[in-house]
Design goal:
By secondary structure, the chain is of the alpha+beta class. Helix content is 25%, strand content 21%. Strand 6 and strand 7 form a beta hairpin. Helix 1 packs across helix 2 and helix 4 crosses helix 5.
């Protein structure tokens, strides 16, 4: 009989939600994250790979933006054949950047990982879902975009990390050229350990046509969603900036947008896309994982306004490593097996609801971490100040 542990792994389930040890996607045991990027000489783009443990993970996807760039997302439909995947690729470069997934697929094939299509150890076809964001030209060169080489570098970086390692945030990987409402975007991550003992975590690559901050106050929309002092420790107050600072910040942002338009020889097109991966160690079916991907978009909507526009391609992947039963055994009915037509089904729905709600919450927090970790970029492709540069 398995027993769910608390956040320290040594005792009973905790009384309330807390962040995981790293407050990152890697708090879901078995998941690894790797980044690869190119900057300078006209480049400002990259790739982020979420690598599953051996044997893969249950996966699903929900696409809400009107201009998505994706690969292999149809394979994640619960009605289709493939049951588990080995990696998810998030990439810059718009549709061109989807080539990065080829480098990841090749790396997996070399290790015999993928959907088995024959008896031989090398007879596999890796299914590598991928989604791209728009960052073309932000480094100065329109044709500087990720390819298979950067995809391979990112998956090798993920494979080279220890399990449970910290995840670099800010202007790394797919977030290297990310911009949200004229403010520098990037990669952010967050996690929560639920009272049941299940971990839910998210990684976001924030690159939105909408804004992360309230135009009237300058406060990040997600500023009040933190667990404990996670945002305060990074210098973010839940109180709005004073009026003078806000005025200076808005003037600076207006000037940066105008300068970016000048450098790009025309009005800046709001072609963006925020990408995310939400994961849990609770055992989910493919339809349940798809529901998690959908509800997680609510967390994105709390942090970015407006969201899901025609010029966004907002895409959320959901992963389940299945290491813990969705319903803790302590809650099961007599005999250790829940009655799925009665009380057991009710318990399952309650536990699933907790995971779904947490998925939305951690995604909001991941977006805030992305904004706080990003560094401003002022280069040939534009002037993109960071939130902390604007508001200190």
């Amino acid at each position: 009989m398995s027993v769910r542990q608390g956040t320290d792994g040594a005792g009973p389930a905790t009384a309330g939600p807390t962040t995981g040890p790293m407050n990152a996607l890697t708090d879901v045991a078995g998941l690894r994250v790797g980044h690869a990027a190119r900057t300078g000489d006209g480049w400002l783009t990259g790739v982020t790979v979420v690598l599953a443990p051996e044997g893969g993970v249950v996966a699903a996807v929900d696409v809400r933006g009107g201009g998505p760039g994706t690969r292999e997302t149809d394979a994640l439909d619960p009605r289709n054949l493939v049951q588990r995947i080995d990696a998810v690729v998030l990439t810059g470069g718009s549709a061109f950047g989807l080539d990065a997934a080829g480098g990841v697929a090749e790396w997996l094939e070399e290790r015999g990982r993928g959907f088995r299509v024959g008896p031989g150890p090398d007879q596999v076809v890796p299914v590598v879902p991928a989604a791209a964001l728009f960052d073309l030209g932000r480094g100065g060169r329109w044709r500087a975009r990720p390819g298979a080489d950067l995809g391979r570098a990112a998956v090798e970086a993920a494979d080279g990390t220890e399990e449970g390692a910290a995840v670099p945030q800010g202007c790394v990987g797919a977030g290297t050229g990310a911009v949200a409402g004229g403010v520098k975007g990037g990669v952010g991550t967050a996690s929560v350990v639920l009272p049941s003992g299940a971990t839910v975590a998210a990684l976001a690559v924030v690159n939105a046509a909408g804004s992360l901050l309230d135009p009237d106050t300058g406060l990040l929309y997600g500023a009040r969603t933190g667990l404990g002092d996670e945002f305060l420790a990074r210098g973010l107050s839940t109180m709005p900036p004073d009026e003078a600072r806000h005025t200076r910040a808005q003037d600076r942002l207006t000037a940066a947008r105008a300068e970016t338009g000048r450098r790009q020889a025309g009005p800046v097109q709001p072609l963006n896309t925020t990408l995310a991966v939400v994961a849990t160690d609770a055992a989910l079916t493919r339809p349940q994982a798809q529901k998690l991907a959908g509800t997680a978009h609510d967390g994105l909507a709390r942090a970015v306004r407006p969201v899901h526009l025609l010029t966004d391609g907002d895409t959320v992947f959901a992963l389940s490593t299945g290491q813990l039963p969705l319903v803790p055994e302590s809650l099961e009915t007599s005999g250790g097996t829940a009655d799925r037509s009665g009380w057991g089904a009710h318990l399952e729905a309650m536990e699933l609801n907790a995971v779904l709600a947490a998925g939305a919450d951690v995604l909001t927090r991941a977006v805030v971490h992305a904004a706080l970790a990003a560094e401003g970029v002022d280069g040939p492709g534009g002037d993109f100040p960071s939130y902390k540069e604007l508001y200190g």
